[in-house]
Please model this.
Amino acid sequence: MKTQSSMQRALRFGFVLLTTLWLAGCATKPPFPDEVVQSASTVPPPHVLSEGGGPLPAGPLIWGGVIISTQNLKQDTELTVLSFPLDDDLRPKSEEPTLGRFLIVRQGFLDPVIYAAGRVVTVVGKVDRIETRKIDNVDYRYPVIEAQSLYLWPPKDKSIPVYFSIGVGVHGGF
Model:
């Protein structure tokens, strides 16, 4: 009897250990230093600044969204981004309603094939101006954030989930 209970405990421990390691491997956070994240705010969101809602914030902001376009300039790269609220891991939630658009300016070259339309980014930086540009025939006021830190999220895994179980029984499904 004692051998079986020791074996059961070992199996439970192994299962808990494997589950913990598996879940830890699934979590991805951008590599922003903690002090940068703690000093940054998501408020005000881009659409508030676009609508002329008060002065530009003095402190750093943390925003994210889906890249609309990437343009390399002489010394900088400019990303046009459709903003979304951030989840607890600071990843934009693209299934939520949009928070407007904004521009990211990053010093240096960013490859437009890598920073392609549809990719997801999170940025920490300061808004230093508002630029008016056209979206079709409409003037749109873009908050421009100078990137201090920029994170390009890996594409979400769309693979079929793998189920693992130990036990005796019959499993059926449709």
In short: Residues 19-25 have pLDDT under 50 and may be disordered. The first helix runs from residue 2 to 26.
